[in-house]
């Protein structure tokens, strides 16, 4: 079979991809816009709205011989369907004839629009979607001049119906295209939206508890072709035409979702540019056109009053507001006095430019230890070597391919990966999820059938022996699964750090690398390793020389001067206060003060990703740029400027004038970035499906990628290096004595981290923290769900309510990170648990 | 009140689940059971059906809303659905329906003050040669006139005094 | 009066709905015969009989069965017992009075396509019929006629009933399948068709046939295709049950050879006009969904067959013949039928969902005397815009009553809009 077929479009032959959808094909190959409402290029066609009607014909075949019948001139006879056909439910085939501009087609479009408008309010100027509304646009292009429907015959329906805390439905505007229902059902896999009643009474409902409240709900407001679905965050906050779109990158996780910040000069923000909403920006390789609700609604921290506003210097017991000049001078002196015993710890929210300047600063001060925070995930080095191959696209994985997800909970850690991996499984990929407990992705792995598709997957539930042993023994314990993984055409392993110490997660990453190397799944597209490193720039830390090992080293041998950059040591590590007390001088730069202000000599305000230019490297090693969008907050500086100025104060070279200049320098010095410039990062290309800009009706309000699709750094394996398996370091999980359990900290998407809390809309969605304990273990210990439990581990003690579960291995309990006032242990550790008498709880 | 664990329904639930290759297919028969138990399709019934079939309650609610024989509102002990579609109407069904509502003092879709009767009109019930007719708790009563209807109402008032709400 | 009953034999044979009685009258001999034939031979026999679907569209039944890919391991038969077309009540009588004949026909179909199970989809209101059929199925299972190794032939097939719950659209075959699977009873995009893998019940190849269609099958196997073909017209063989309702003296079901004239049906069988002094005015020969025709002599003399009805601009469909006498205002008829479709539109596709609602609103306005001549043109236009653009035929059905009532009885509309002017 050839890969293309030729169809005749309005009299002209056009070569299109075989098997393509007709709407997609004529748009991509011939720029022909067949109007659609219900059809969406990311979902199965349903043929509901009838907007895409066209004339269709195909070569007539002789009944008996099956031969194409010919006209006298030798051309094939074309037999047209007597009725118009929906293009969206048509797959192209050789010789297909399509007429999109004839009178019957023009009339049908006009008629469908007239029908839709007969029930739709005609108040575009006050509608949230006004100005970027497919219904409005298509009416201009194809619709009737005036409505013949009597206005008082229209239905009056609920205008502000909450489908949950996040999304509102205007029942009068809904045109029953079912895009939102299908998105939730087909793409997300949570069928919490559905139609109720029928005929003209058909309406969208949720009857789930809680309501429409998935991690991806906001996307429905983008693909809704009218203003029926609006977000509680933005609705009626501004008009689309007042907004300026600034390309950016999600600051939350390793996916690096491409986003567009909709900015407006705002009275409530001193007349400065303010983020009014966060929209997806198309990058098919990264997030397609989807973003998580955390990315969409979690932006409020950038303007929070809680942010550090001015540089502060210690004066005795207290920090005193100061100015940059004084602060820089004092800090330079402190650095000089340290005799080279200077180290830095950087969080993964730090852009590459800042990390580079921080590194240069430490080096200028004679230090060398560069710690990556949190010091928990050891996968970055392995990703640099055998990470997912150049040119990879999770959206291309499907039949014949396999994905192993081990020691992580992608729904909570990198939601977009979870969305795309579920899609890959729907396309036929074999999904294996391994963990000590049940995760959302495991549900999908085991679901068997979904949306009338048979999907394949398996789950591996390991116990206290942990992920490393499970992977190393895979061939022995799960030969069938191991065999299928090895035999897959493409194999991606996602190896996390849940339930592991830092050496454990390093060992797991090496074991995973070996598995990939042995089965030949490295150095090519759609094969290789991924790691859900925390934060948006875990790989940037790796490439710029910041490592979790160095952070551990700093913890065990604190330096004289420690620079802490955008890392919440006290929020993350119960032991931090203790080891930080051994540091002479702490220079802390961040957006928020996690309490380090009590210990630091200097507390400095940093700018958020929205206030500056910069770049991150995502988990697929794609370097992506973000751009200055928001007005400045207080006296905050971008990290590169702060550290560059300090370096200048040490007389170690002049401050660079811009982020671009910093990037130019780092790309000269860091081999992995060689030859890459800001201009390269800003390059775009035409992407399929072509949803950008003007064609809102087609893909929704996901924005065209104007800021660049980024550049993927090659992994070592892509350059034909590091192809031999390495010895997996011996790793044994922390030993639990009799009566002890393994305490496993886990990550929750919605938590009480300082940069998340200001987004009040999501606050009710934060679950109460629970310690999850195996049912048999609980029975032995006399614990039932709801009991108050005291956990003692890693020198700290915490109290949480118990949740007893069959879905977690014996001997293991989980504690959610960043949900309790006191930090939970950094990594897995042995500990003890005991029931607290309720009287004592009450007394506290 | 419950369906789950209610001995009365276990055999029926089991039989319906055995009929189909997918659990989801049993949603309609189970909704009838929920309606029987609660007198209407209430949230408790929806949740139980959802639980029995591993469905999201939204999906069950959606099914209940699409079909007219599931009542999403409480109704009287006798749910009287009068066919007023064209063939019956040609035989006087509209007048009969109007008269019945007046007789019971109810509005369309309403329930009589004593909680005994809910009256509504419905589309063709495949009994066009026996008009006027109605369906009472899903059983047909045909060839009606005012006298026979009055007699029936009187009988139902007596029978229904102790009976539970419900169908079939 | 040469009435011959192939289907309504319950009228001639007392207690035919009892299994012993049914068996005494050739019951299950056709199934036994079929099980002795190859599946292909059974299909050929049905093809040769010229039997056409009685659910409305008149598609040749044997041809439909032959579309099923034999090599597929899982296949189904679904019996369409949704009988919800306004004025139709024939399937009901077959199932009430002659239930075993339907089950026998279904099993023959199942054997012919080698189906794993038969699902009888009954409209929910047929609650009592469902109970009776369940009872019949149990008796047959006890006798080894349903279930494993039927009649020792090695062929196994289950039969189940499924009750709908009040939705006309579930008579449309793909909506029926969705409903049976536990989804909303909304039609599916076709292709794939039910007979194809991917398009039928649970995505497996499936035959969907009407009750009356399948109830004919035992006769064809017992008496032979030729005997069946000998009844009726060349293109419409066999008998047909005509459901007569409205203004006739004796409304009811009449099973007559296809090709009998309307005149014979209405005057000889149904007893003529209900009120002798008032003549017939109009007829809906296929319930609410087919085009209305005035009851002229030409129409009365038309044979009731698929081909002849096309000649007078209507269809025989499921033969639900609704008769209206001179007292009837056709605008009111249009409104009644429009209300039906507005109530029954599933809402999935735009023209039907919006069109039925809109038509209903405007026609109410016209009936109320608030309409204008423009409104009449408007609804005709709206109906034209619906026709041919919807996802399933309900949209076309809903357009018919408006288009054809206005065309055939313009004066009835003019009266309402002029009264106001
Ligand atoms: C809106 C609609 C309603 C229908 N209702 C019925 C029905 O109640 N009973 C029926 O047998 N066929 C009905 N049909 C026809 C079925 O779709 C299908 O053609 C039929 O069941 C095929 O069986 P047959 O070939 O034996 O006629 C309906 C079709 C449409 C479009
Ligand atoms: S024509 Fe009507 S019934 Fe058919 S799919 Fe469209 S909305 Fe549903
Ligand atoms: S029917 Fe094709 S786009 Fe809606």
Draw up the topology in text:
The complex is a heterotrimer of chains A (844), B (168) and C (421).
Chain A lengths: L3 E6 L2 E6 L4 H9 L22 E7 L18 E3 L4 E2 L10 E3 L3 H17 L14 H9 L18 E2 L4 E3 L9 H10 L5 E3 L6 E3 L13 H5 L5 E3 L12 E6 L8 E9 L5 E9 L12 H5 L14 E4 L2 E4 L2 H13 L5 E6 L4 H13 L4 E5 L6 H7 L15 E5 L3 H4 L1 H12 L3 E6 L4 H7 L2 E2 L2 E2 L1 E6 L4 H7 L1 H4 L1 H9 L3 E5 L6 H17 L9 E3 L7 H6 L4 H9 L4 E5 L3 H4 L3 H5 L4 E6 L11 E4 L8 E4 L4 E5 L12 H11 L9 H11 L8 H4 L14 H4 L11 E2 L28 E6 L23 E5 H7 L6 E6 L2 E10 L6 E5 L12 E7 L2 H6 L1
Parallel strand pairs in A: 1-6, 17-18, 17-26, 19-20, 19-24, 20-23, 24-25, 26-27, 27-28, 32-36, 33-35
Antiparallel strand pairs in A: 1-2, 3-4, 3-5, 3-6, 7-8, 8-11, 9-10, 12-13, 13-14, 15-16, 15-28, 21-22, 29-30, 30-31, 32-37, 33-36, 34-35, 34-37
Chain B lengths: L6 H13 L7 H12 L4 H11 L3 H10 L11 E6 L2 H5 L2 H12 L12 E6 L11 E3 L2 E3 L4 H15 L8
Parallel strand pairs in B: 1-2
Antiparallel strand pairs in B: 1-3, 3-4
Chain C lengths: L18 H6 L4 H7 L3 H11 L11 H6 L8 E7 L8 H8 L1 H15 L3 E6 L4 H17 L14 E6 L9 H9 L23 E6 H5 L1 H7 L1 H5 L9 E8 L5 E6 L4 H8 L10 E9 L4 E2 L2 H4 L5 H6 L8 E6 L4 H15 L5 H18 L5 H14 L7 H15 L1 H11 L1
Parallel strand pairs in C: 1-2, 1-4, 2-3, 5-9
Antiparallel strand pairs in C: 5-6, 7-8, 7-9
Helix pairs in contact in C: 2-6, 2-10, 3-6, 5-6, 15-16, 15-18, 16-17, 16-18, 17-18, 18-19
The complex binds flavin mononucleotide, iron/sulfur cluster and FE2/S2 (inorganic) cluster (FES).
What does this structure look like?
The complex is a heterotrimer of chains A (844), B (168) and C (421). Helix content of chain A is 25%, strand content 21%. Chain A is an alpha/beta fold. Chain A has five domains: 4-101, Roll (Ubiquitin-like (UB roll)), CATH 3.10.20.740; 114-231, Alpha-Beta Plaits (2-Layer Sandwich), CATH 3.30.70; 312-376 and 538-671, Rossmann fold (3-Layer(aba) Sandwich), CATH 3.40.50.740; 377-533 and 683-732, Dimethylsulfoxide Reductase, domain 2 (3-Layer(aba) Sandwich), CATH 3.40.228.10; 741-837, Beta Barrel (Barwin-like endoglucanases), CATH 2.40.40.20. In chain A, the strands form nine sheets. Chain A has a seven-stranded mixed sheet with strand order 16-15-28-27-26-17-18. The model of chain A has no long low-confidence stretch (mean pLDDT 95). The longest helix of chain B has 15 residues, at 146-160. Chain B has helices at 7-19, 27-38, 43-53, 57-66, 86-90, 93-104, 146-160, and strands at residues 78-83, 117-122, 134-136, 139-141. Chain B has two domains: 7-66, Orthogonal Bundle (Arc Repressor Mutant, subunit A); 78-160, Glutaredoxin. With 168 residues, chain B is an alpha+beta fold. Chain C has three domains: 9-229, 3-Layer(aba) Sandwich (Rossmann fold); 239-325, Ubiquitin-like (UB roll) (Roll); 330-420, NADH-ubiquinone oxidoreductase 51kDa subunit, iron-sulphur binding domain (de novo design (two linked rop proteins)), CATH 1.20.1440. Helices cover 44% and strands 13% of the residues of chain C. Chain C has 19 helices and nine strands. Chain C has helices at 19-24, 29-35, 39-49, 61-66, 90-97, 99-113, 127-143, 173-181, 211-215, 217-223, 225-229, 262-269, 297-300, 306-311, 330-344, 350-367, 373-386, 394-408, 410-420; strands at residues 75-81, 117-122, 158-163, 205-210, 239-246, 252-257, 280-288, 293-294, 320-325. Chain C has a five-stranded mixed sheet, with helices on both faces. In chain C, helix 15 (330-344) runs antiparallel to helix 16 (350-367). Chain C starts with 18 loop residues before the first helix and ends with a helix. The model of chain C has no long low-confidence stretch (mean pLDDT 96). The interface between A and C is medium-sized, with 36 and 30 residues. The complex binds flavin mononucleotide (FMN), iron/sulfur cluster and FE2/S2 (inorganic) cluster. Residues 36-39, 47-52, 86, 88 of chain A line the site of FE2/S2 (inorganic) cluster (FES).
């Amino acid at each position: 079979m050839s890969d293309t077929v030729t169809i005749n479009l309005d009299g002209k032959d056009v070569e299109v991809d075989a098997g393509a959808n007709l709407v997609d094909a004529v748009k991509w190959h011939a720029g022909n816009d067949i109007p659609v409402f219900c059809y969406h290029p990311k979902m199965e066609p349903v043929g509901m709205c009838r907007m895409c009607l066209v004339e269709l014909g195909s070569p007539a075949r002789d009944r008996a011989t099956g031969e194409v019948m010919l006209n006298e001139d030798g051309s094939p006879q074309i037999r047209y369907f007597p009725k118009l056909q929906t293009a969206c439910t048509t797959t192209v085939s050789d010789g297909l004839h399509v007429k999109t501009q004839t009178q019957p087609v023009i009339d049908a479009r006009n008629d469908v629009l007239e029908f839709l408008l007969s029930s739709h309010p005609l108040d575009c100027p006050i509608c949230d979607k006004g100005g970027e509304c497919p219904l409005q646009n298509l009416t201009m292009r194809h619709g009737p001049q005036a409505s013949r429907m009597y206005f008082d015959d229209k239905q009056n329906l609920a205008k502000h119906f909450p489908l949950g805390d996040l999304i509102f439905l205007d029942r009068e505007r809904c045109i029953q295209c079912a895009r939102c229902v299908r998105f939730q059902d087909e793409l997300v896999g949570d069928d919490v939206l559905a139609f109720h009643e029928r005929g003209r009474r058909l309406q969208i409902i949720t009857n789930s508890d809680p309501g429409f409240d998935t991690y991806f709900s906001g996307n429905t407001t983008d693909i809704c072709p009218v203003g029926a679905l609006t977000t509680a965050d933005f609705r009626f906050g501004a008009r689309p035409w007042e907004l300026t779109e600034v390309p950016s990158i999600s600051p939350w996780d390793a996916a690096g979702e491409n986003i567009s910040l909709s900015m407006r000069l705002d009275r409530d923000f001193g007349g400065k540019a303010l983020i009014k909403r966060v929209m997806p920006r198309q990058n098919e390789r990264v997030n397609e056109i989807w973003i998580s609700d955390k990315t969409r609604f979690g932006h409020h921290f950038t303007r929070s009053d809680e942010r550090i506003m001015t540089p502060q210097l210690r004066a005795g017991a207290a920090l005193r507001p100061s100015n940059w000049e004084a602060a820089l001078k004092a800090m330079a002196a402190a650095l000089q006095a340290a005799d080279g015993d200077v180290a830095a710890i950087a969080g993964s929210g730090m852009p590459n430019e800042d990390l580079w300047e921080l590194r240069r600063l430490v080096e200028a001060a004679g230090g060398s230890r560069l710690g990556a925070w949190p010091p928990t995930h050891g996968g970055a080095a392995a990703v640099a070597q055998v990470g997912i191959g150049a040119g990879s696209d999770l959206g291309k994985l499907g039949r014949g391919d396999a994905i192993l997800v081990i020691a992580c909970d992608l729904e909570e850690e990198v939601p977009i990966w979870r969305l795309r991996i579920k899609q890959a499984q729907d396309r036929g990929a074999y999904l294996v999820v391994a963990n000590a407990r049940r995760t959302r992705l495991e549900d999908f792995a085991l679901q068997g059938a979904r949306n009338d598709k048979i999907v394949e997957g398996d789950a591996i539930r390991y116990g206290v022996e942990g992920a490393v042993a499970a992977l190393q023994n895979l061939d022995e314990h799960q030969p069938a699964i191991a065999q299928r993984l090895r035999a897959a055409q493409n194999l991606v392993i996602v190896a996390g750090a849940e339930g592991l110490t830092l050496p454990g997660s390093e060992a797991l990453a090496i074991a995973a690398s070996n598995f990939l190397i042995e089965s030949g799944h490295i150095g090519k597209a759609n094969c290789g390793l991924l790691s859900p490193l925390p934060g948006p720039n875990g790989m940037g830390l790796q490439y710029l020389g910041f490592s979790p090992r160095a952070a551990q080293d700093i913890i065990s041998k604190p330096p004289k001067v420690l620079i802490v950059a955008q890392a919440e040591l006290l929020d993350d590590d119960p032991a931090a206060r203790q080891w930080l007390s051994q540091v002479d001088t702490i220079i802390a730069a961040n957006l928020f003060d996690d309490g380090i202000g009590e210990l630091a000599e200097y507390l400095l305000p940093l700018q958020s990703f929205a206030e500056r230019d910069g770049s991150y490297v995502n988990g697929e090693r794609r370097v992506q740029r973000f751009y200055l969008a928001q007005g400045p907050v207080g006296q905050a500086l971008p990290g590169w400027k702060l550290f560059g100025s300090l370096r200048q104060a040490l007389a170690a070279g002049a401050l660079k004038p811009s982020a671009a200049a910093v990037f130019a320098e780092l790309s000269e010095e860091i081999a992995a970035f060689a030859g890459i410039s800001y201009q390269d990062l800003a390059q775009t290309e035409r992407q399929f499906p072509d949803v950008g800009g003007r064609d809102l009706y087609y893909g929704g309000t996901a924005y065209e990628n104007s800021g660049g699709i980024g550049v993927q750094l090659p992994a070592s394996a892509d350059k034909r290096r590091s192809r031999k398996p390495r010895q997996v370091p011996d790793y044994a999980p922390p030993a639990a004595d009799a009566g002890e359990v393994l305490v496993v900290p886990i990550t929750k998407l919605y938590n009480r981290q300082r940069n998340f809390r200001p987004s009040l809309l999501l606050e009710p969605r934060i679950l109460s923290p629970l310690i999850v304990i195996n049912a048999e273990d609980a029975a032995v210990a006399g614990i039932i769900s709801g009991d108050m439990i005291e956990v003692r581990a890693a020198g700290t003690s915490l109290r949480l309510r118990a949740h007893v579960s069959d879905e977690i291995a014996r001997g293991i309990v989980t504690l959610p990170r960043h949900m309790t006032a006191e930090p939970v242990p950094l990594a897995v550790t042995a500990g003890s648990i005991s029931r607290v008498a309720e009287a004592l709880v009450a007394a506290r | 009140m419950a369906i789950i664990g209610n001995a009365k329904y276990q055999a029926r639930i089991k039989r319906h689940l055995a009929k189909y290759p997918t659990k989801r297919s049993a949603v309609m028969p189970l909704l009838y059971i929920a309606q029987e138990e609660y007198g209407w399709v209430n949230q408790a019934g929806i949740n139980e059906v959802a639980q029995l079939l591993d469905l999201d309650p939204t999906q069950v609610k959606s099914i209940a809303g699409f079909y007219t024989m599931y009542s999403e509102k409480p109704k009287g002990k006798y749910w009287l659905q009068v066919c007023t579609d064209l063939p019956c109407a040609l035989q006087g069904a509209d007048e009969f329906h109007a008269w019945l509502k007046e007789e019971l003092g109810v509005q369309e879709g309403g329930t009589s003050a004593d909680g005994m009767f809910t009256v509504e009109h419905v589309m063709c019930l495949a009994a066009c040669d026996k008009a006027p007719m109605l369906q009472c708790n899903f059983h047909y009563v045909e060839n009606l006139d005012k006298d026979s209807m009055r007699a029936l109402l009187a009988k139902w008032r007596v029978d229904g005094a102790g009976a539970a709400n419900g169908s079939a | 009066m040469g009435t011959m009953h192939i289907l309504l034999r319950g009228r001639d044979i007392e207690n035919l709905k009892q299994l012993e009685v049914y068996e005494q009258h050739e019951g299950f001999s056709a199934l036994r015969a079929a099980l002795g034939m190859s599946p292909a031979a059974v299909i050929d026999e049905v093809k040769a009989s010229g039997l056409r679907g009685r659910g409305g569209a008149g598609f040749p039944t044997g041809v439909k069965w032959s579309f099923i890919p034999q090599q597929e391991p899982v296949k189904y038969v679904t019996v369409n017992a949704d009988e919800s077309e306004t004025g139709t009540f024939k399937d009901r009588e077959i199932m009430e009075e002659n239930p075993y004949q339907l089950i026998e026909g279904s099993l023959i179909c199942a054997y012919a396509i080698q189906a794993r199970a038969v699902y009888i989809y009954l409209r929910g209101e047929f609650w009592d019929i469902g109970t009776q059929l369940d009872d019949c199925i149990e008796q047959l299972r006890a006798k080894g006629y349903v279930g494993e190794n039927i009649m020792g032939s090695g062929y196994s097939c289950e039969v189940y009933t499924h009750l709908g719950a009040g939705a006309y659209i579930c008579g449309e075959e793909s909506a029926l399948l969705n409903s049976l699977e536990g989804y909303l009873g909304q039609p599916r995009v076709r292709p794939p068709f039910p007979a194809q893998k991917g398009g039928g019940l649970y995505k497996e190849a499936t035959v969907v046939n009407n009750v009356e269609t399948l109830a004919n099958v035992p006769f064809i196997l017992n008496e032979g295709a030729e005997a069946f073909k000998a009844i009726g017209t060349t293109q419409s063989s066999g008998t047909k049950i005509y459901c007569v309702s409205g203004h006739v003296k004796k409304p009811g079901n009449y099973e007559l050879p296809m090709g009998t004239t309307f005149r014979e049906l209405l005057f000889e069988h149904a007893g003529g006009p209900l009120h002798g002094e008032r003549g017939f005015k109009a007829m809906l020969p296929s319930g609410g969904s087919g085009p209305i025709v005035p009851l002229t002599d030409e129409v009365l003399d038309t044979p009731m067959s698929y081909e002849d009805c096309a000649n007078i601009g209507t269809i025989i469909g499921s033969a639900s013949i609704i008769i209206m006498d001179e007292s009837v205002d056709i605008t009111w008829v249009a409104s009644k039928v429009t209300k039906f479709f507005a109530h029954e539109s599933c809402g999935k596709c735009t023209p039907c969902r919006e069109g039925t609602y809109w038509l209903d609103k405007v026609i109410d306005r016209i009936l109320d005397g608030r309409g204008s001549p423009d409104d009449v043109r408007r609804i005709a236009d709206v109906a034209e815009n619906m026709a041919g653009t919807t996802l399933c035929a309900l949209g076309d059905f809903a357009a018919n009553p408006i288009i054809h009532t206005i065309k055939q009885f313009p004066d009835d509309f003019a009266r309402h809009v002029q009264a106001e002017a």
